[in-house]
Predict the 3D structure of the following.
Amino acid sequence: MQAFYDHVIKTLNKAGVKYVVAGGVAVVLYGYPRFTRDLDLIVLLEEKNLSKFYDALGKIGYVPKVPVTKEQFMDKKQRKRWQKEKGMVVFSFVQKDPPFELIDMFVDEPIKFSDLYEKRKKAKIRDMVVPLISIDHLKKLKLKAARPQDLIDVVQLDAMQRMGRAEK
């Protein structure tokens, strides 16, 4: 599983994509070990950046989980329609071959991207830099989602901050 994350992050970094890692992987990188089956990303939703993101994932074998074209994916109005009509929160990319790894990208900015990017943590992991959502923004997203695992994550992140094990 670690190889999956490493490969994707290295590829996105090399392509110059502006993004931050969020979700369960961010929780793990802040020091709370738990299982997560996907990689959640918040990507700058500008056309040029989305094009780089789409192409970079395509080069390493990822395709949209739903059959849409690159143009549809990059179309802001189309993404808004998916949100409104289908309740879409994330757009998923899946590896074409086993083990069918999943990347979820938020279709809208849950928090203004410029703020997320400015306050990101640049986590040095092995031989790469991971643009990691700030712990405070991560907790805000987790509280907004309010699923049972998200609430557990917030409790754990709070505890780690109190013990000085996680940066703000």
Notes: Residues 148-162 form the longest helix (15 residues). Residues 14 and 86 are 33 Å apart (CA to CA). The chain has one domain: 2-162. The mean pLDDT is 93.
